[in-house]
Design brief:
Blueprint: E1 6-8, E2 11-12, H1 17-31, H2 37-46, E3 49-51, E4 57-62, E5 68-69, H3 71-84, E6 88-91, E7 97-103, H4 107-116, E8 133-134, H5 149-159, E9 174-177, E10 192-199, E11 202-209, E12 221-228, H6 232-246, H7 257-264, H8 266-282, H9 313-320, E13 321-323, E14 329-334, E15 340-342, H10 343-356, E16 361-363, E17 369-375, H11 379-388, E18 403-404, H12 418-431, H13 433-438, E19 444-447, E20 461-470, E21 473-482, E22 485-486, E23 491-492, E24 495-501, H14 505-518, H15 525-529, H16 532-543
Parallel strand pairs: 8-9, 9-10, 18-19, 19-20
Antiparallel strand pairs: 1-2, 3-4, 4-7, 5-16, 6-7, 6-15, 10-11, 11-12, 13-14, 14-17, 16-17, 20-21, 21-24, 22-23
């Protein structure tokens, strides 16, 4: 079957059959001994296929620029989940869909299924320009200066398979967003970010560079306050070219763009960027070509409501329903537990988005989904449809909507099984609705290692997996961060206030939130301003675990049955 190029009159795919054919050819060359293991790994990663802790299986990453998914693509995602992904897909904090435990022998078939639906894995991993993330409410947000969706598509199409896009010193994570007063696209923690701006009647973007998490946290540098939309591709090209030229190719641990900026200084980097912009103009510039966009389903606003509000509707709607700037329509956030969605649920969403919304959906960096252009009168009927497939959970984007990376269940770099803690905290906070109600605006995020794929550094309360020795044996623990988040003009990173045994992490959350409520906390600034010694005192007793007091459970990670051990592996997300 050949790759389908277009699925709606105005929404094109990103895949090419040639990419799948080349993957097959390279695999055959590797199996014949004609391609070295290192060269094969480099190629495999650039095509979105990661090795896991377990032999013979892989993580496969489907790249979704802007988080946009069409009905045909939903069917393909469901089929891959069903046949090769143990029945489910996983939404990541970069709006991709990942599959874990995909047998090596089945990777080719999975890639073909995705490509036939226009979904590419090209440059989803490796030293490349990664997936372009975008605000899931782009085009419907009340406070955006203009819809940035066509521009994120244009950037993704222009840079995919570009001359520099897969030969960088290290990965480059990009984002583009548009909401005023917020940074919902998380541009301030990305290597390259664009934020929509308006100057008089002219529209354009602020250009950011060098943001990131992991062991060196940086809020992105503003390299240009305003770039007209016509020069958007040139600005992106300039940042990427500078990184390609000055990035560290000798030390992977210090190879991200933020390290290059630190090395030469912000002023020198801006000068390099400006010089590169002039070179690009001298070469003739880059013409911006915007892809056509689907027409919003305005005619559906007049459809009458079917029936009354079902039981549970109001609790669900409180966090899930967001009015749009288009009168009579709302967007709906579908909460997914730890980002997981099953193959039957993916399929069941196809008629729902066609009958109720705009005919597509969007993934989010909170590991959820968003349906848009739902007529307000049809929200109760939509709730009933979502309830029937287990996708009408209350608490979307609330404190109980915990974010977590896959952790040591599959990742070679992870120390702890972060999903085990994520599941425990989800259950705790769903039960403690008093705390959830009192802590609006806060969030909880979990990562299995310092690299921070679960984004714990920018959480109201964040947990980072680690290890401690008790009676000479390894036991799982979590570093506790508080007060992280992203604002309109910067990213703030959480303060480390302690290290608790994994079995005490849930008690830590309760303790901290009880303190927050008792002290009258009103947002993440509370954690930034509270005296460090006072914060540390809240969990000091939970940190201590004497050898004589340890139980057998303290040596078993959350959600696991075997004794905890730290397995040192060459993690491919650092490759």
């Amino acid at each position: 079957m050949s790759v389908v190029e277009t699925f709606q009159p105005s929404r094109q795919g990103y895949a090419r059959q040639a990419d799948v054919d080349l993957f097959v050819a390279k695999l055959e060359a590797f199996e014949k001994g004609e391609l070295s293991p290192d060269d094969w790994r480099s190629f495999r990663l650039l095509n979105g296929v990661y090795g896991q802790r377990q032999d013979g299986v892989n993580m496969l990453r489907a790249k979704l620029p802007g988080g946009i998914v069409t009905p045909v693509q939903l069917e393909a995602l469901a089929e891959v989940a069903e046949k090769f992904g143990h029945g489910k897909g996983h939404i990541t904090t970069r709006q991709n869909v990942q599959y874990h435990f995909v047998p090596s022998a089945d990777v080719e078939q999975a890639l073909q299924l995705l490509a036939d639906a226009g979904i590419t894995t090209k440059e989803a991993c490796g030293h490349s320009v990664r997936n372009w993330t975008c605000c899931p409410f782009a085009g419907v947000a009340r406070d955006e200066p203009f819809d940035p969706t066509p521009y994120v598509e244009a950037l993704a199409r222009y840079l995919l398979r570009g001359p520099y896009s897969s030969t960088l010193p290290r990965k480059l994570k990009p984002s583009l967003g548009g909401c005023c007063g917020t940074d919902c696209s998380q541009a301030f923690i990305n290597d390259l970010g664009f934020l929509a701006r308006k100057r008089g009647d002219e529209i354009g973007f602020a250009v950011l560079a060098g943001g990131g998490l992991s062991t060196l946290r940086r809020s992105a540098l503003t390299v240009e306050e305003f770039v007209p939309v016509a020069e958007l591709l040139e600005a992106a090209d300039a940042v990427i070219r500078v990184f390609h030229r000055i990035g560290n190719r000798n030390n992977k641990a210090k190879a991200r763009l933020k390290w290059a900026i630190d090395k030469i200084g912000p002023e020198a980097f801006v000068a390099e960027y400006q010089a590169e912009r002039l070179k690009i103009k001298a070469e003739g510039g880059v013409k911006l070509e915007l892809p056509p966009q689907p027409e919003p389903p305005r005619r559906r606003a007049a459809l009458a409501q079917v029936g009354e509000k079902p039981e549970g509707y109001d609790a669900w709607a409180a966090d899930s329903v967001r009015p749009q700037k288009q009168a009579g329509f709302s967007s709906v956030v579908i909460r997914l537990i730890l980002g997981d969605i099953t193959a039957p649920q993916l399929r069941a969403l196809i008629p729902i988005i066609q009958q109720y919304g705009e005919g597509e959906l969007r993934t989010t960096n909170e590991q959820n989904l968003v349906l848009r252009f739902i007529p307000d009168a049809r929200l109760p009927a939509l709730y009933k449809e979502l309830s029937a497939i287990g996708l009408a959970l209350a608490g979307a984007n609330s404190l109980s909507d915990v974010t977590s990376c896959p952790g040591a269940s599959s990742c070679k770099l992870a120390v702890t099984a972060s999903r085990g803690l994520g599941a425990q905290l989800t259950a705790l906070l769903d039960r403690r609705q008093d705390l959830v109600a009192a802590a609006k605006g806060l969030d909880v995020k979990v990562s299995g290692c310092p690299h921070g794929c679960g984004q714990h550094y920018i959480a109201g309360i964040g947990f980072q997996g680690g290890m401690r020795k008790i009676a000479g044996k390894a036991a799982p623990q979590y570093l506790v961060y508080v007060g992280g988040g992203i604002g309109a003009d910067r990213a703030d990173f959480g303060r480390l206030i302690g290290k608790v045994p994994a079995r005490r992490a849930a008690a830590t959350v309760e303790r901290l939130l009880d303190f927050y409520v008792a002290e009258g906390g009103t947002g993440r600034d509370f954690w930034q301003k509270a005296p460090a010694d006072k914060l540390k005192a809240q969990i000091a007793d939970l940190e201590k675990l004497a050898d004589a007091d340890a139980t057998a459970d303290d040596f078993v990670d959350l959600g696991e049955t075997r004794s905890f051990e730290v397995v040192t592996m060459d993690g491919e997300c650092a490759s």
